[in-house]
């Protein structure tokens, strides 16, 4: 069996376009020897950025020409009508055709979700896909979902997110303790959807459900998966990134004031690296019959490379297949 990991890159997506995605792709390629990339975008823009790379890297690259890009201001509803020649659409199409095992894009989230559902379809038994993000923790990292695909969710959808998140966590880290994000740990607190979802999770023997967690507990590292709707999750993840940036800024300012550099203090440098949001860039769109990784639109080169590496891990873990099997088993039992 081939160990090659074939990933499609939406080279035109995101704020940086090819000037950022191509260097990030090469960075990931240099560090992951089993990685083979399909760079999807305008070949006239991509080729000059590859003119001086070594043959060893060039042998693991394919350029797939796509004339257009989907902009952040494009209405998601127009994408299926007018976006079929775009780099994003073509990259997802490569997943559908079996040419690649996953795709990565920093483009419009709504458009990516719509294209993904149109071309790859949702897994049987899953109402809606969810975006899941890896987050740091005091003792270990965990997964938070949904972080933006579905601003409003019913209890069944939250339950399905828990099933999908548990499969992802178990396949990558081996542990899958699931918690539901709430404003308190008491049974009577939270919205009706959250309370009803907790009952569904408690009744499911295939889930290791540990109850509610409050926002202050999310980063403790005591659970592997935290479930919420996309509105709450998006606010949560962006707030966490903002706090991390503030802490890094305060650390840098402190060292600048003392004529020292942050890197000169090993402990402070480790802390700065541990909470750097770019290291956790790349949200998986779970629930589709194929792997899609959504990078933040303004990710750095390092951040986009991390999203590519995350795609490699997803391919290794065959997450969509495992989710389909888990959902089928739960439907059969329940």
Distance from first to last alpha carbon: 36 Å
Helix content: 40-55%
Summed up, the helix count is 12
Shape: globular
Q: From the coordinates shown, what is the CATH architecture of the largest domain?
A: 3-Layer(aba) Sandwich
How many domains make up the coordinates?
Answer: 2
Radius of gyration: 20 Å
Order of SSEs: EHEHHEHHEHEEHEHEEHHEEHH
Oligomer: single chain
Largest sheet: 11 strands, mixed
Total number of beta strands: 11
How would you name the CATH homologous superfamily of the largest domain? Answer: Isopropylmalate Dehydrogenase
Helix and strand content put the structural class at alpha/beta
As residue ranges, the low-confidence spans are none
Strand content: 15-25%
Arrangement of strands in the largest sheet: 3-2-1-4-11-10-5-6-9-7-8
CATH fold description of the largest domain: Isopropylmalate Dehydrogenase
CATH top level class name of the largest domain: Alpha Beta
The pLDDT mean sits at: 88
How are the secondary structure elements laid out?
Elements: E1 5-10, H1 18-31, E2 35-41, H2 43-46, H3 55-58, E3 61-65, H4 76-82, H5 87-97, E4 102-105, H6 109-119, E5 130-135, E6 142-145, H7 155-172, E7 177-181, H8 192-203, E8 208-213, E9 225-227, H9 230-257, H10 266-274, E10 283-286, E11 291-294, H11 301-317, H12 319-333
Parallel strand pairs: 1-2, 1-4, 2-3, 4-11, 6-9, 7-8, 7-9
Antiparallel strand pairs: 5-6, 5-10, 10-11
């Amino acid at each position: 069996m081939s160990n090659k990991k074939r990933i499609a890159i939406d080279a035109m997506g995101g704020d940086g376009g090819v000037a950022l995605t191509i260097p990030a792709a090469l960075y990931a390629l240099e560090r992951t020897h089993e990685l083979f990339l399909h760079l999807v975008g305008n070949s006239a823009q991509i080729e000059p950025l590859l003119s001086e790379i070594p043959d060893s890297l060039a042998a693991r690259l394919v350029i797939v020409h796509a004339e257009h890009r989907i902009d952040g201001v494009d209405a998601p509803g127009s994408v299926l009508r007018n976006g079929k020649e775009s780099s994003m659409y073509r990259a997802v199409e490569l997943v559908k055709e079996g040419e690649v095992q996953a795709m990565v894009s920093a483009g419009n989230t709504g458009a990516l979700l719509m294209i993904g559902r149109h071309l790859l379809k949702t897994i049987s038994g899953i109402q809606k896909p969810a975006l899941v993000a890896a987050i740091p923790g005091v003792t270990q990292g965990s997964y938070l979902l949904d972080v933006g695909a579905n601003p409003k969710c019913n209890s069944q959808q939250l339950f399905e997110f828990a099933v999908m998140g548990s499969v992802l966590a178990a396949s990558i880290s081996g542990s899958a303790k699931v918690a539901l994000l709430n404003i308190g740990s008491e049974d009577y607190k939270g919205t009706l959807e959250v309370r009803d979802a907790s009952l569904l999770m408690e009744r499911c023997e295939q889930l290791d459900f540990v109850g509610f967690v409050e926002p202050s507990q999310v980063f403790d590292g005591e659970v592997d998966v935290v479930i919420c709707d996309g509105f709450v999750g998006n606010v949560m993840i962006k707030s966490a990134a903002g706090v991390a940036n503030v802490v890094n800024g305060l650390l840098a300012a402190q060292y600048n004031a003392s004529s020292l550099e942050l890197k000169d203090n090993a402990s402070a440098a480790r802390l700065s690296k541990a909470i750097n949001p770019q290291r956790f860039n790349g949200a998986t769109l779970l629930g589709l019959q194929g792997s899609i990784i959504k990078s933040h639109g303004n990710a750095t080169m390092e951040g986009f490379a991390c999203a590519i590496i995350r795609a490699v891990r997803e391919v290794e873990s065959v997450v969509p297949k495992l989710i389909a099997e888990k959902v089928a088993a739960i439907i059969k039992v329940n």
